[in-house]
Amino acid sequence: MVDILHRVGAVAPLEEVYRAVATPEGIAGWWTTETSGASEVGGKLVFRFGEVGGFDMEIRELDPRGRVRWRVTDGPAEWIGTEVDWRLEQRGEWTIVQFKHEGWREPVEFMNHCSTKWATFLISLKDYVETGHGRPAPDDVKISDWH
Amino acid sequence: MVDILHRVGAVAPLEEVYRAVATPEGIAGWWTTETSGASEVGGKLVFRFGEVGGFDMEIRELDPRGRVRWRVTDGPAEWIGTEVDWRLEQRGEWTIVQFKHEGWREPVEFMNHCSTKWATFLISLKDYVETGHGRPAPDDVKISDWH
């Protein structure tokens, strides 16, 4: 098993960062505008990226103290069964985001792409909570021939 | 051992991307302007980031067909002994960059920071070879309280 790991920080209260990763409205501000679903444990989140497809995830954990966890239930074969884990921690004026997309079976080229792409979305998340403006798809940063 | 893995693509000839990762002049265009050293196997590259410090690396491999490898010989304790591996491949108008920073002893928080930070520098590399303008330090993207 291999994991994608990242860390960003935003000058924003933990509650705001939590809202941005725990609710469909928040996620739509930095990952993809086509986000819908229910913000509750066991609820389903649906993420779409126009014609490219997307992901369905089940919410496994929601803790306003700074913990969110999703499990991928539909999407590209490599993603199914992987989990996305968020840990938020307030440190002074910063909220630190520890991000993990874990349980990849192999470090395939597509995983490397997703690692870089996640970084761009985490910076989008940072910008969203700091300024109100992220770069969710379809306005996301294109990093290669794979988007 | 844990690895940082990324993948970006640039619309540029492989030779240009190779030059950007194989020579101090190229690296200064996207990673840090304070880059010096000799572009030869066994040669030493010195990367500095103002007062923050920096890294010394030994070049282990240089192959204009698309392979570069460095070994970290000085810098933060977590970096020493790790290796940075570049594989470039031309695919049509794209040059695909497979990046690996391998041999981390543990997935510590600092590694997660470096993972995200490398992504921003890889996009800086992409911009540099595509447009002539990257964002090397000290003009790099600040991603958190750790820079």
TrEMBL record, chains A, B:
Gene3D superfamilies linked to this entry: 3.30.530.20
Record domain Activator of Hsp90 ATPase homologue 1/2-like C-terminal: where: 12-130
Family of this protein: Belongs to the AHA1 family.
Protein name, UniProt field: SRPBCC domain-containing protein
The organism's place on the tree of life at top rank: Bacteria
